[in-house]
Amino acid sequence: MAQGYRVVDDIVDRLAACGVRHLFGVDGANIEDLFDAAAGREDIDIILAKHEFGAAAMADGYSRSGAGLGVVAATSGGGCLNLVPGLGESLARRVPVLALVGQAPTRLDGRGAFQDTSGADGALDAEALFSAVSLYCRRVTRPADIVCTLAEALSAAATGGPAVLLLPKDIQQSVLPPLVGLPTPRHLRAPLPDLAGIICALRTADGPVTVIAGEQVARDDARAELRLLCGALGAHPATVPDAKDVAPGAPVTGVMGHPGVAAELGRSAACLLVGTRLDVTARAGLDDALAAVPTLSIGSAAPYVATTHCRADDLRAALPALAAAVRRGSGSPRKPLPFNELTPPPTDGPGVRYRTALHAIDAALPAGTDIVVDAGNIGAAAIHHLPARADGRFLVALGMGGMGYSFGAAVGSAAHRGRRTVVIAGDGSFYMHGMEIHTALRHRLPITFLLFDNHAHAMCVTREHLFYGGGDGRNRFGASRLGAGLAAMFPGLPSVDVDTAHDLPAALRTALASDGPSVVAVECSPDEIPPFAAFLTQKESPHVAAHA
Ligand SMILES: Cc1ncc(C[n+]2csc(CCOP(=O)(O)OP(=O)(O)O)c2C)c(N)n1
Ligand SMILES: [Mg+2]
Q1: Least confident window among 90-104, 335-349, 361-375, 433-447
Q2: 542 CA to centre of ligand 2 in angstroms
Q3: Quick check: CB of 433 below 6 Å from ligand 1?
Q4: CB proximity list for 497: less than 8 A, separation 6 or greater
């Protein structure tokens, strides 16, 4: 092994200097030098995942939870390819992540190396591939280039999204000459935006303003500034589905949202979008109401709907300035927007209904608990029925909607925040990436995994049923007992099955009080239709009931 200060030592030193405290990844021959440089350091913990998607989700969840840059490391070949869906999620949701990806030694580029992804002589071109799922991607082919490429990668990631460095084994091992005055990335404060257009529109709005808060408020941690702005406008916000934690208890917009938002919007003099592009998932059901009111927007990227948009890359700085400019007089403040739930058609049969389970979870989770939600019918139900906790995170991967994200993301988030974190995931999502439960156990992270076992990819069952004449059962699985299975598999993991609503509260209490991770598998039905607007046709659900 090379003696002296290696390229990998430089990388790890500079990441530590930027405040990175965790490195997530999976080891392998072409990334072991990087792990070797990080191993044994007091200031960086290594968390080895079971799968590179899990590791990428950990880095994403770490960053979304407020830790700053999430760093993931993977080896060449299959390892690096497994990163793609995780980085795709971070790109779509603009989450700052750095991927350090091992490559075969440069002397073997295009010469039949094991796991050659150099792009030479017909080999898979990793630089082309990762350029498509990142804001910045470089293959480092000279040791000294690490100085600039790492600085550029950090700057790119800081703008919101993944950066990727492809690091051939020989480059990682190369000894660097002493480097004086390394360029540490500086995050310059974004200039204050020109708010004139939206200030004027807000001042002249003759009536209530509906505020819809989005994911950038979470990314910039501008929660307090959002409250300030809403106070100034006498407004209560709604949130998009993946920004529930910026206004805990507020109703949600879009396909998994609360229908009262559209009604309130219809009674408003203006709509102000804060830090969201309002993609289809977030705006389903709102198009008509949006078209009928002046719509204004502040955030780093213009929405997909027509607005008067004001670009603001730093909402923490911009929202107080906007609040000061639009403060309204003593008019009576508006009432909070109604949190009225959809009522899907009832389901008979065994198991616990989603709403019943989520209300039991709502009653059991104290303030400050973090929640991470996965895909599928149970994910939609959780977004609809379960409010974020005061001072708690609520993470969900709606960029790519990849099943199994919650397991890794919860590990990343809990590693940073040390909070009790609750994962809500279906059995299908568990089968994809649930082995990260073992990673949580290894690191004794305080995560309670609530696995909703309907023995099916139930969202696909619902679609078969509603849109394909009943379906052929292909999305239903065989029997399973996940709680008992995990308890037998992982000694030391409290893990139980719950079959009835009656038994759920006690199981939740015990699981939440555990030291370290715990599992509760909840029996539910593949035939239950979740509160997902696209599944509730006029015929099936004229029901839009108000629940306090
Ligand atoms: C990686 C991935 N593959 C496929 C899909 C399409 N898909 C969306 S929901 C779903 C089923 C989810 O099953 P489960 O996690 O058990 O939740 P349930 O719908 O049963 O509550 C599938 C296959 C997806 N979102 N992500
Ligand atoms: Mg399922």
Answers
A1: 335-349
A2: 26
A3: no
A4: 453, 481, 482, 483, 484, 520, 521, 523
pLDDT digits (tens, 9 = 90+) for 126-169: 999 999 999 999 999 999 999 999 999 999 999 999 999 999 99
Task: Give 504 Cα–ligand 2 centroid separation in angstroms.
Answer: 18
Q: Ligand 1 in contact with 454 (CB < 6 A)?
A: yes
Query: What is the Cα gyration radius of the chain?
Result: 24
Side by side, which strands form the sheet with 370-373? 394-396, 370-373, 421-426, 447-453, 518-523, 495-498
Strands 421-426 and 370-373: parallel
Q: What are the CA-CA distances from residue 400 to residues 86, 92, 360 (Å)?
A: 9, 7, 29
pLDDT of 540: 43
Average pLDDT over residues 502-523: 98
- Hey, what are 69's tokens? 């840059």
438 contacts 404 by C-beta, under 8 angstroms: no
Please work out whether the CB of residue 377 comes within 6 Å of at least one atom of ligand 1. Answer: yes
Q: Is 234 left (phi over 0), alpha (psi -120 to 50) or beta?
A: left
Which one, of 235, 232, 237, 291, lies nearest residue 261 by Cα?
Answer: 237
Asked if residue 455 lies in contact with residue 477, where contact means CB atoms within 8 angstroms, the answer is yes
Instruction: Read off the pLDDT band of 332 (50, 70, 90).
Output: low
Look up residue 37 and give its amino acid. A
Ligand 1 atom with least separation from CA of 456:
20
- 0.90 surpassed by pTM: yes
- Report how far residue 483's alpha carbon sits from residue 343's, in angstroms, rounded to the nearest whole number: 29
Angle between helices 52-62 and 84-92 (to 10 degrees): 20
**Ligand having the closest approach to the CA of 89:** 1
For the ranges 25-34, 271-280, 361-370, 533-542, the lowest mean pLDDT is seen at 533-542
Interval 531-543: pLDDT, tens: 999 999 744 433 3
Q: Determine the atom of ligand 1 nearest the C-alpha atom of 375.
A: 9
Q: Ligand 1: does its nearest atom lie under 6 Å from the Cβ of 402?
A: yes
Token reading at 67:
């830790």
Q: Please name the residue whose Cα sits nearest to atom 10 of ligand 1.
A: 376
- Ligand 1 pocket check for 525: Cβ under 6 Å: no
**Can you state the percent helix, strand and coil of the chain, rounding each to 5?**
40, 15, 45
Confidence of residue 340 (pLDDT cuts 50, 70, 90): confident
Measured from the CB, is residue 312 less than 6 Å from ligand 1? no
Kindly state the helix (H) or strand (E) to which residue 244 belongs, with its residue range: none
Nearest atom in ligand 1 to the alpha carbon of residue 430 is 15
Domains detected in the chain:
5-176 (3.40.50.970), 196-326 (3.40.50.1220), 341-535 (3.40.50.970)
Cα 255 to middle of ligand 1, angstroms: 16
pLDDT surpasses 70 at 72: yes
Which pair of tokens denotes residue 215? 């994911």
pLDDT (mean) for 491-515: 97
Please, is 509 exposed, middle or buried when counting C-beta atoms within 10 Å of its C-beta (0-12, 13-18, 19+)?
A: exposed
